[in-house]
Amino acid sequence: MDVQKILVVDDDEHLRMVLQETLESGGYKVKIASSGNEALSILKEEAFDLLITDLMMPGIKGVELVGRAKEIYPNIGAMVITAYGTIDRAVESMQKGAFDFITKPFSISQIESRVKRFFEFQALQKENVVLKKKLERFRLTQKIVGESPVIKEVMDHIAIVANSDATVFIRGESGTGKELVAQAIHDRSDRADKPFRKINCAAVPETLFESTLFGHEKGAFSGAYRQQKGIFEECHEGTILLDEISEIPHSLQAKLLRVLQEMKITRVGSTEEIPVDVRIIATTNRNIDELINSGKFREDLFFRLNVFPITLPPLRDRKEDIPLIIDHFLSTLKDKYHFTEKKISPSLMKQIMEYDWPGNVRQLQHMLERAILFSGKEVTITEKHFKFEEEGRRNSAKGGNGSLEVMPLAEMERKLIFAALKKTNNHRTRAAELLGITVRTLRNKLHEYEEQGLTDEEL
């Protein structure tokens, strides 16, 4: 268990030393500062669990220091001590985020009990967060829906590998649910109560990749104003999902391989090796064999990652699951779109079953949500509400796989807004209800479109 760290700030040297000695004898790691400015300098270099500060000091006052400390570390606790104990100052410090307010003179036992009470409260907060995450993970993993033989095999693989520490390599097209499977593996493992962190390898700039994974020391590069842990350290004893691992820069693949082999990382700007304990799950939607043959992905790194491979089938290969998936989405979307019952007409279901689904389950979900919006208060969703992508129709006819031509999110948003207005004869309140947004949000969006010169005809 990590030692809890406390920063004590007071312009009274004797009080600083007494507090430091008392708290250190209680097992805490303590640093002291004589002013608010000195405290801010320390906070920019190092993280603390609790700030104990005098209220009335030269320069930065205690109340301001609490607020600025919270800006740097939102989760830091704060206690204010002062001889000027008034309700107004107490309220102000609490509004800035202070946990407690203590007036001088006070006894050593008072400080000890208040600090103990804070850390007990913090532990309860953390436990609450863990429980909420467990509940959310339970809800998330229920999204793996299906009874087809291929999806049952995937679920069997999850059950087999979950309680091991084996590295898992998940292949599958975009939208097949690779992240859901990774989350399910973590949730069923002995690491379930530890961090689960996802890094999208395609989204991290090459210049920041090493720092993001392994952390950096202060001054390691321009903009490194303080020491920063990387994902491997932050996720100690947990699980890291390396999403789209095929996009990791070739120059860093050897470093990642070494870390996976030795389970030790070195921060950028340091030579110290830090042991880590993490489980790795990697995913890709690319043909990894082609990347290896072309020299874009190291074969030895692939072998290290591919200890337990899982391949997710595209939706077109498990169409018998589509009715179950639709029922699942209709059930989970009720609260979001404020309806009690929706169903798919038989003729539309026939078309859905014949469609090729190049974007897989994710595409089905998005198209179903759009159809729910267009259907308004009608219970039955029909062909007039459901817009198929022509690419999927063509592929279905010729039996090819194809790829989904994705519409920009902003463009889809505008289309839905103007469609809702058209359906309600420009009645903004009803259109907002249909879209599941507030009238104010709708008004702001329309104002944006007006400034951009966009109309429904242009969309």
TrEMBL record:
Domain (Sigma-54 factor interaction) ranges: 144-373
GO terms, molecular function: ATP binding; sequence-specific DNA binding
InterPro entries linked: AAA+_ATPase, AAA_lid_NorR, CheY-like_superfamily, Homeodomain-like_sf, HTH_Fis, P-loop_NTPase, Sig_transdc_resp-reg_receiver, Sigma_54_int
Organism superkingdom: Bacteria
CDD domains cross-referenced by the UniProt entry: AAA (cd00009), REC (cd00156)
PROSITE patterns named in the record: RESPONSE_REGULATORY, SIGMA54_INTERACT_1, SIGMA54_INTERACT_3, SIGMA54_INTERACT_4
Entry keyword Hydrolase: no
UniProt keywords, alphabetically: ATP-binding, Nucleotide-binding, Phosphoprotein, Transcription, Transcription regulation, Two-component regulatory system
Modified residues (4-aspartylphosphate): D54
Transmembrane segments: none
Coiled-coil stretches noted in the UniProt entry, renumbered to this chain: none
GO biological process per UniProt: phosphorelay signal transduction system; regulation of DNA-templated transcription
Domain Response regulatory: 5-119
UniProt protein name: Two component, sigma54 specific, transcriptional regulator, Fis family
Protein species of origin: Caldithrix abyssi DSM 13497
